[in-house]
Amino acid sequence: ISLKYEGAGDMRVLVKEYQLEPVGHRLLHADFYKVAMDKAIRVTVPVHLEGESKGVKVQGGVVDFVNREVEIECLPADIPEHITVDITELMLHQGIRVRDLAALSNKWTAVTEGDLLIVHVVMPKVEAAATPADGATAAAPAEPEVMKKGKIEKDDDKKDEKKK
Description:
Elements: E1 2-4, E2 10-20, E3 27-34, E4 41-50, H1 54-57, E5 62-65, E6 69-74, E7 83-86, E8 95-97, H2 98-101, E9 108-110, E10 117-122, H3 155-163
């Protein structure tokens, strides 16, 4: 952003932090960070996925988007809004790491560790259903035992009643 300041000329700034009104979402406050346009800075940039993986379409996998942000170093004028990653060629058990993103642009370099996984295609997790043995149907859950109300009869009391 080019910011005009009284007594000084135009300054180039980045928004460091801002505060919004909770109801109307209007800007209440903003903190700016003055930048030199000729010095590289470190920023965190979001990663966006593009396309549908062949591992999902053909092999029945699921895309697991592990890390959605990457820290990069570049000149302030070269900061990308986001990094777009094409996943159409990803097959099952294949992934894209930060080191693979480095080939996407020569204007920035990744600061995040190169082995950090961004996205990969995995098999969906399925809970194993209990299968009945020998093709028999699964047993119904046991019913709770119902206790009778009243006096408990003893075997001796029943014998006495029969003799009468």
